[in-house]
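Human: If only I could read backbone structure tokens as easily as an amino acid sequence. Take your time, and here it is.
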Amino acid sequence: MVFLPSDIIGEIFLYLEKEYSANPTQLHRVIYSYTWINRNWCQNTIPYLWRKPFYSRRPSNNNNNKLRNSNKKIIETLLMSMNEKERKELSMAGFNLPRRGRSGSIFDYASFIKELDYFEMFNSIIDWILENHLHITNENIRQEYFYQRNIRNIKNDFDGNNIDRLIHLIMNMFKNHNTQINYLKLIPYNINHYTRDDNCYLLFVDQNYFKCLVENLKYLEVDTDFCDYSFLISLSKICNNLKYLHSFRDNVRITKMTQYYIKSQATILNSLISSQQNLESLKLSGYTWYSTLMDQSILTQINSLKILEFNEIDFKSQQQQQKIDCTLDTINLCTNLELLIISWCWGLGEGGCGGNYRNIQNFVNNSQFPKLSKVTIKGLCPTALRKWAETYNY
């Protein structure tokens, strides 16, 4: 076979990403098959596959055994690729380590990781513990322990400290192997109560020990309602070069909407957004309240923002405070916008949606976005604003 340079193979992978954009699992299978072509292809394929090792489980496919087994094997591979010192620490923590050959691992897998779904990694670690440490293989029992009970109650000799220890050792492995994460996802789903009670994600900023892992982060998706307040404030101090930020709150999760809660959430958002140097894409989802602090934080990014998206945001509370439509004024200052999305939001206009007709008309008449190519508006919306959006979608 003719030798292909790495950059050409990289272009092939980019093409395949577009071809299989709707089916990432199939993409993984296709690219994995290339590892068997020859040494050159293998040396290029393995780093690509390990760039994003964990595939997310959604509620619709939580019983997908193939996906769970794949993620569990990733944990096993990481443990096998640990050096002797790291393996010794795991052994001392009481874990049964997978066997490996005398020569150890061929690849430094941890160093390839660029995109990390943290809670999927956490779920995969628990899956590995259930099967390999606690020898629970029955699916019904596994589901019961994983989703309904606190895992520390499974056996007397196994508690939450073991889980924290294993996560800490894996994160320490990332640190020792110079892993540079540029995409971090901190949005849980079907997670057991253990995670929230013990704030396992605090390991990222524990005395800045793992600062080197995320200080070059470019993409962040985070559930601000689930993650710990002090963790997120610390994260905003470490990560100042984000290009993409998706801040999310799950409206299904019941939370008492006290003034203190609203203020703390607004403070988190303000800290995350305002601390960035040149944020290009901002997506806010699920905030059934809106604070003027959020507008103030967006004002810090008006020169760099290219994409701005609001999903299920209630702007009425802000208008009751200010008596004006501050959000449209803020959007109007983002003159470099290329894409604007407003989906199922409230309080931007009249017709039962709240808001101020005069401010909307002023926005429509005076807005200037020379780079704006698409505007998407879904749900209740003033007629004037919807007609304005249509002028950008031809």
Q: What stands out?
A: The two ends are 48 Å apart (CA to CA). DSSP finds 17 helices and eight strands in the chain. The longest helix spans residues 160-176.
